[in-house]
Amino acid sequence: MNLNTELWYVRWYFWSLGIMSEFTEKGLDYQARKDGTNLCAFIRALIVWTPLILAAHVLVYALAGFVLMAVPLALLGVVGYLIALGVVGAIVLAIWGLIKWVNYRDDKRWRARQSISQEELPSPADDQPSFTEVAWKWAVAQKQKVCPLISFTNIEQGAK
Asked: Which terminus of the chain has a smaller tally of CB atoms within 10 A, N or C?
């Protein structure tokens, strides 16, 4: 099976592999792009590991949010907390605005230097399976106890 890297569920798969690579310190996403994977590992990453990763992230961010609210409120009180929150918010907003302005300026300069007109990108191939078709192929593969190999291509590059 050959899947386009621009499909939403393939991008979701590579996102989850990137997160798993952070935990394991292995280049899982690089290996999958280069060598491909099998359908069982593909679906397992989408249905098992990605929800677990998302649940862990929600738990960590909720705990961090609680700590960032409870400790300053206990130390500074409500008025001091709101003043500190306003100061930190203003600093973050100023830094964010500066970064956006620099990126806009650089992008504008880059576009001015590029005088080549953009060719029309090829349309996605009609034979790309939807997520439900891939899930059905996985169910059939589980029944037959054989997981087919998956390779990934990019329509823009036309190669692996």
From this structure: C
Dihedral angle at the C-alpha atoms of 4, 41, 15, 150, nearest 10 degrees?
Answer: -10
- For residue 48, the 8-state DSSP code is I
Q: Where are the domains of the chain?
A: 2-73+129-153
User: Quick one: pLDDT at residue 95?
Assistant: 97
State the amino acid at position 4 in one-letter form: N
Tokens of 29: 């996403």
Low-confidence ranges of the chain (pLDDT < 50): 117-121, 126, 158-160
74 vs 63: CA distance, rounded Å: 16
Q: What pLDDT sits at residue 157?
A: 53
**Whether the Cβ atoms of residue 155 and residue 4 lie closer than 8 Å to each other:** yes
Checking DSSP bridges between strand 149-153 and strand 2-4, what pairing results, if any? Answer: parallel
- Residue 119 φ then ψ, to 5°: -75, 155
Give the separation between CA 14 and CA 119, rounded to whole angstroms: 27
Q: What DSSP state is assigned to residue 153? A: E
Measured CA distances, 148 to 36, 47, 52, 63, 153 (Å): 11, 18, 25, 41, 16
CA distance 112 to 73: 50
